[in-house]
Amino acid sequence: MTVHNLYIFDRNGSCLHYGEWNRKKQAGISKEEEFKLMYGMLFSIRSFCSKMSPLDMKDGFLTFQTSKYKLHYYETATGIKIIMNTDLGVPNAKDILHQIYSTVSMGLYVEYIVKNPLCVLGEQLSSDLFSTRLDLYIRALPFFSPRAA
Amino acid sequence: MAIFSVYAVNKSGGFIYQYDNYVHRAEAEKTFRYPLDCVLKIHDEKVVVSFGQRDGIRVGNALLSINGLDVNGKFTADGKEIIEYLKDSTNYPLSILFGRARLSSNEKLMPASMFHSLFAIGSQLSPEVGSTGIEMLETDMFKRHCFQTLTGIKLIVLTDPRQSGIDELLRKIYEIYSDFALKNPFYSLAMPISLEGVPTYAEHLLAAFPSLYGPTHP
Q1: What's the predicted TM-score (pTM) here?
Q2: ipTM exceeds 0.90, yes or no
């Protein structure tokens, strides 16, 4: 049971943060392109889900899985999207992603914006404090183990 | 607990087959007086609500019928433009039915083929070696399962999120596809299945799983 990687996007599609823990295979394209592809894929999946859905949706798209990994998706009302790739053993990470947003991200996000007048919204979050806090949080998760099962 | 629909896509992403078993459409009919308090706009050849959500009528719902007569795109059944018709106060009071827009077959074709590409991207972005494409996609209202055969045909089933036994159902659909379509000498590979008796094939297969009927099925 493990977490492979985590992306945070803003509403315009720029990647604010990317963290990697147990990734075995690189996509074979540059990081920039991978972020764009990931964002594009999720945007298409979302619009596709809203068209296909037989009833009006409350939360929208939650997760998808392949034979090897599971992707969990969480979107806030302001358009911030948090995406986590884990292995198949993890049930529903929606609450965890919500936690990441509210305590780790928002807690530091607000501090970062308020206390750093030079930082611009929409650029990569280069705060070390944010990265280390997020890293510690992910490692503390019950389903995280340094070596994939 | 229900199966909503079944789709089949060939290996180049072209649409082969589609069957709707049980589609629940939330609709709301209300009687209105002049002036109309919802703001309507034309989107994709349909009249949809853009503002004024209330009483079961939500933003994005399309105008389905006026006074019981189904509308035809942006025109009423008699051929008048809907927006102009609704601006005329002499036509009121009238009753309008709003609901989720029913998808035409073209509109169903696009997402099915789009899924084919998303399936491939899912496998490319995989952090693990040897991943297949997207096998199961989950939202709060439905689950979409996809089974890719060795020949590249994707069999896609849309179900209720609590439905179980889908792997077995997908294998059975594959079996029936090979019986009815592949063994038919008049069927060309990768073409849309429009053979006689094919809707009954889907009913036949859903009959093999009686517990999977939607609540409105006899």
Answers
A1: 0.76
A2: no
